[in-house]
Structures are given as C-alpha cells and as structure tokens.
Amino acid sequence: MPVQTTSDDVLIGRIANGDRLAMQVLFARHHVQVYRFALRIVRNEATAEDLIGDVFLDVWRQAGKFEGRSAVSTWLLGIARFKALSALRRRPEEELDEEAAGAIEDQTDDPEVALAKKDKGAILRQCLEKLSVEHREVVDLVYYHEKSVEEVAKIVGIPEATVKTRMFYARKKLSELLKERGIDRGWP
Questions:
Q1: Which of 22, 98, 106, 158 could form a disulfide with 11 if both were Cys (CB 3.0 to 4.6 A apart)?
Q2: CA 119 to CA 182: how far, in whole Å?
Q3: Domain 110-180 falls in which CATH fold?
Q4: How does pLDDT run across 135-154, given as a tens digit for each residue?
Q5: Which fold has domain 3-90?
C-alpha cells in the first residue's frame, strides 16, 4: 500500500521504526490543522510556526509511546496545546505604552470599518475573541477542528462534563455578544 494512503495509526507505527517518509506524510497531512490550532492559542504566527516544529519533533521522538487511545489528530492537537500553553507562560507580559495607545486613531467613521461591522463573519470572529481562553479553546476544537466532546476532553485534559459546561457557557456568552452587536440568530 502506498504510504500516502496509509492510515495515521500505521504511519505512527512506521515513524516509531524510523521511517522518514511516513513522518513526511503525517506532517503534510496535519501541519496546517496543528498550525491553525496553535495560532489561535498563541496569536503569533512566528511562535505558531516554531511550535509546529516542536510538535512534530515530539511525534518523531515519541511515536513508539503512542497508545492509540485516541485519533492521531487528537494526539497531535494535545501536544500542540501543551506546547502553546507553555509558550504563553514563557512570554513576558506586554505592557501597553500609554503614548502609543493615545496615538491610535479612532476610525469608527471609516467606510471600511462600517462595512466590516456589517460583515457578520467579522463580527463573529470579534465576538469569539472576547470569550475566555477556556471557552474559545473548546469552541475552536468542536466547531473548527470538528472534535467530539470526548476528543476535546482528552486534548484539553478535563472531564467530558466540563467540556459540555464550557460549551454551554461559551455559546451563551457568544449569543449575548452577538446580540449586543445587532445579530440575533439571523444568519443568511
């Protein structure tokens, strides 16, 4: 069977045996998803790029320890989450420069900004940014990465009931934020 059509589980087994081609295929298959997930946590493209290398280096080193209790993609996102949170802890708190903040121009009357306010997708993204990190994380995994509650629990390291609770409160808060922006379930 060609390596490109091999299942992720078989690829991990081959990677554990030092198969570089299997590693390349796994990377090609999952690096974009892992990058996007890490980027949503760290909010810095360069840091997310660095994390991708770290995640797949861990896969190369730890493939023999993969037990198959979850999907390979779930395992990858779990590694990415751990590395992203570690990177956030190492990042020094950025202080707001009062002078620079005062120099920011208020562009509320700008036509582009007015158009963006009408763009429901942009509004949704802005509202998602206002959710707590914990709520944003479960929404990201469930809706953007299409992970089940069970998979999210494994990735984040919390009970399934906690995932469900976070989803409930995240949707409630998101609904409130959207309503404040003039969107009340009226998606075209």
A1: 22
A2: 11
A3: Arc Repressor Mutant, subunit A (1.10.10)
A4: 999 998 988 888 899 999 99
A5: Rna Polymerase Sigma Factor; Chain: A (1.10.1740)
